[in-house]
From TrEMBL:
Residues 323-392 form the 4Fe-4S ferredoxin-type domain. The keyword Transport applies. Residues 476-495 are annotated as: Disordered. One of its GO terms (molecular function) is 4 iron, 4 sulfur cluster binding. Keywords: 4Fe-4S, Electron transport, Iron, Iron-sulfur, Metal-binding, Repeat, Transport. This is Lactate utilization protein B. InterPro entries: 4Fe4S_Fe-S-bd (IPR017896), 4Fe4S_Fe_S_CS (IPR017900), FTHF_cligase-like_sf (IPR024185), Helical_ferredxn (IPR009051), LUD_dom (IPR003741), LutB/LldF (IPR004452), LutB_C (IPR024569), NagB/RpiA_transferase-like (IPR037171). Gene3D superfamilies: Alpha-helical ferredoxin (1.10.1060.10), NagB/RpiA/CoA transferase-like (3.40.50.10420). Residues 405-490 form the Lactate utilization protein B C-terminal domain. Residues 79-307 form the LUD domain. GO terms for biological process: lactate metabolic process. It comes from Mycolicibacterium vanbaalenii.
Amino acid sequence: MSDRPHVGVTREFLGLPAFRTAAKTALGDPVLRRNLAHATGTIRAKRAAAVGELDNWEELRLAAEAIKDAALHRLDEHLEAFEANATAAGATVHWARDAEEANGIVVDLVRAQGADEVVKVKSMATQEIELNEALAAAGIDAWETDLAELIVQLGGDWPSHILVPAIHRNRAEVREIFLREMGRVGRPAAEDLTDEPKRLAEAARLHLREKFLRARVAVSGANFAIADTGSLVVVESEGNGRMCLTLPETLISVVGIEKVLPSWRDLEVFLQVLPRSSTGERENPYTSVWTGPVAGDGPQNVHIVLLDNGRTRVLADPEGRAALRCIRCSACLNVCPVYERTGGHAYGSVYPGPIGAVLTPQLRGTGSDIDKSLPFASSLCGACFDVCPVRIDIPSMLVHLRTRVIDERRGGVPSGEQVAMTAASWTFAGPRRWAAAGRAVAMVGKALRSKRLGSRQVLRRLPWPVRAWSQARDAPVPPAESFRSWWQRTGGGHE
């Protein structure tokens, strides 16, 4: 029996199609849409109930925003303080400019321990740098221990949600994955396994237990890093993270540099807003904190990899740096009408949904088709800002990034959209041109209504050159008279 993970898909995100193309595929999958609608609806309701218990929720949001902004404003100082205090506590701190450096550091540390496998705490940062793939290339097995991440890994799949990576799977699908794949990489699922949640959780627990007990190295991320003590904090709901953080001899934590908070006092605010925004709970079932190694208790070799990977570039953009406030709660995904209908895979990133639409193009740049399309993967309804516990103005940031994408396209052969916008700009700039356009549209409307459209209020498909616009939306039937003509005819509305 091979103990190597069965992974049928690699995360070559940059080769994926643009959001609009990927979303069209997702919209045609009724099972996916049903799973997403049920899961996001449930999480939304839980969050609303938990937030509704607090009279000072908006004050907490304002405090979280202020703390994060202050930390980012003096990020260099806080990072140096964190390194000094973590080192004094016995940890070894490494700095990584990009994914390649971070992966190289982790691979070398695992090899130095003579290990050929690691157990992992759920971590967005390690997914971002594709650490599992780098470890596999070095002959090292990486076992995901979060239940949803385990489902994704065994299914050879991609995560599709920040908090619930397997949100696109239902219980029946999870059962089939466990029955088919667990035996290939370890303890098999029971032959009489049902899709009852309790039985599925039991199968995962038994499968993972042998990996926890034999693993010599663990890899984690961190929700927060406390500068004045050099401590790392992980919050979770299952307890698998604590197993990884306490049983192995060596612990390697990959932490984005934006996770630093100045002091313990700052953490108090986030331990209130994070659980309510993510899982709809008053507090996280497990909050683990570690400050270097402790003799005879837990890992004796503690390493921390501080990851940049584009974050300083984001920090340098006054209009985009607020994205670094994100605490990965996923509240914006759960209220987004676009995400609910397309799922996370359409975003082509480990950061899906509204926050992914603004964070990914800043971290990776807008050189690929998928990254250029992400700022447009939104209706700009504003629901994401309303629920964000750190008040990231995602709609304004999306407009900023759309402007950047358009500016980068200037020059060369114009696209159809650019031609249409140039024509619209020319029309809107002159009163006479605008009036003539209004008369022309009214003539079209009058002609259409003369064909006895009856009660129809929309046109299903427009002719070329605007046909592409109407493929995904209905156009209203133009009125038989423009407002300007009506106003002039009636003397200002006094017929």
